[in-house]
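S.,

As promised, the nicotinamide-adenine-dinucleotide run. Input:
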Amino acid sequence: MEIKQIKMGIVGAGTWGETHASIYAEHLFADPVAICDKDEVRARAIAEKYGIREVYTDYNEMAEKSDIDAVAIVTPDFLHADIACKFADCKKHLLIEKPLATTREDIGRICEAVERNGVRCMVDLHNRWNPPFNTAKQEVESGKLGEPYTAYIRHSDVKWVATDMLKWASKSSILWFLGSHSLDTLRWIFDDEVKRVYSIKKEGILKALGVDTADIYLTTIEFERGGIAHMENGWVTPNGNTNINDFKFSLLCTKGMVSLDLSSHNLIHLVTDEKAVTPDILVSNMVFDRCKGLSYESIRDFIDRLVDGKEFRVTLEDSRKTALAIIAMLESSETGMPVEVEY
Ligand SMILES: NC(=O)c1ccc[n+]([C@@H]2O[C@H](COP(=O)([O-])OP(=O)(O)OC[C@H]3O[C@@H](n4cnc5c(N)ncnc54)[C@H](O)[C@@H]3O)[C@@H](O)[C@H]2O)c1
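Predicted complex:
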């Protein structure tokens, strides 16, 4: 039996670009054909490791020459739009790493190019595939908890992510990097759109370490049907934390509540003379050399939906509204005033 494989290209051969390559390489319905990075050495290293046949340093050339069906855009947060528009113009489907884009203009340009070219586009807001969140969503949908009333979500990283892992943290924000996941999750669980936000930031710790970005944002969110949520996103959790993420969630509904602790779970605890850690078993855990976590599931779902033609579980409209609400939070944190989200 012949299997139809989706021929994939990847732009951005950094940390997360390698995650994409490993997933396409092992997915039965995907074939990683091409990879592009401005840094040729990086692109070649990943190409060799995962059997990717074409290497480019110019994404325009890859878009025009490579016989791919779709592209994964895995460049820094603020460098998604030009690449997305170019590949859409070359009739390639798009999987864009979160966030969709970081300015109102870029968000509009991508949506226009997707619409005009009739291509499909998903943004990798993968927390919907996180098993505890997915179960919480199912419980809410069952109706037994009543209506979502208030929620608290905390999704923060240890400092190391901003100071060492990302070379471009100064040009982004924890609101883009993790806040976009938090907000997409809240919108999905409340099944509602954000009406107004009030965000306050603290800064100083990262600036003193040479990274010119805010440390932490605390945001109050009002939904259109009256739900309220508090969202906390920081890049300054101590590096000694047992998990790279500090990830908590609680949801109060009119007839029940649900609470999640995803970073201090009791499923596995590992202690050496140096450190105690809570290994990741949800995001990118490996089972017999295969990535099985939610970061695998969302990317696999993109391929599956291209094969079966069904709607993506994160629509372009989801990612557009999430990005526009994050822009409102950033504006609120600058002005010190609540901001109505403009869609
Ligand atoms: N889904 C997740 O949970 C998750 C996790 C990590 C990163 N990300 C996202 O993935 C994206 C990339 O993050 P990363 O950590 O891999 O960053 P990274 O810095 O490790 O890699 C980015 C790569 O893009 C390349 N690049 C930049 N501009 C380019 C251009 N014009 N053409 C070709 N290559 C170019 C850089 O040379 C670099 O190799 C970001 O949007 C980030 O938010 C998502």
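The chain has a mean pLDDT of 96. The first strand starts at residue 6 and ends at 11.

- D.
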